[in-house]
Amino acid sequence: MDKEKILKKLEEDLSEEEIEKAKRNDHARRKPRACGFTVHIAKGCNANCLYCYVSTKAKLVDLSPKALLYALLLNPKFEVGKSFVAVGAICEPLDFPEYTKEFLREIIKLGNPVQISTKEVNYDLAKLLKRVDALVSMCSAIDDICKKFEPKRKPPSERLEFCEEIGGAVFLRPILPNVSLKDYFKSLEIISNYTDRVILGNLRLSKEVKRKLGIKELPKKYFEVKKKLEDYAKDLGLIVYRSACCSNAYKHKVVCWNECWKKGFCSSCPNTCWVKV
């Protein structure tokens, strides 16, 4: 698809004020991250999960879904049909279901590998979420444990049923030092009943997160524990990713945007990017 033609088409649907506002938006100039272009339909979250570095209240972006797409297309580094897109980096996109629905409908038309991360359950969006790489996040698949850290979100048992319905992957994140290896093994066993794909996410520490979790730093053997979890997950028949971009690549049958196989992040999943490149 020709980017200029798409921009002109969008301009027909947007007011001059919306166009100017989109040009000033950071999506129009922000550099892509390892996972691709992060799309912030909102900033902040009201869930206050104990381990989360996002502490501000949720505020929807001051652009319509089409104007947000326009801003993204203005970004000179964004390539139509190629650039990876990740929705939900610093917010919960399903807290704004109508906005998310409209934005996904628009961006899917471009043919880019699109990924969305959520802790919520919304069956009204199921058909749409099946068309993208849907990551269902949880810090544990055990309801009682998860509730301690994510008290305002639905229990993982409900999220897992939703994950199965939409053909998603579980984003088991973050791996917490406060949770035992035995309980994580149990989580992986539970997860394997609902999906064949899992991502193991790191804990990102800030002063506030350290305070809430009661820890000063990551344990010395933190990454050894993650490796044990990866090995156990593979023994259960799960496809394991060390990075979210790998899941997006696998879902859309394309080469990983971040070239993880060159950087030590590759878990040798069936996508075999090193062969496709």
UniProtKB/TrEMBL annotation:
Keywords: Iron, Iron-sulfur, Metal-binding, S-adenosyl-L-methionine. Residues 41-166 form the Radical SAM core domain. InterPro entries: Aldolase_TIM, MJ0683-like, rSAM, rSAM_sf. The keyword Calcium does not apply. GO terms for molecular function: catalytic activity; iron-sulfur cluster binding; metal ion binding. Pfam families: Radical_SAM. The keyword Metal-binding applies. This is Radical SAM domain protein.
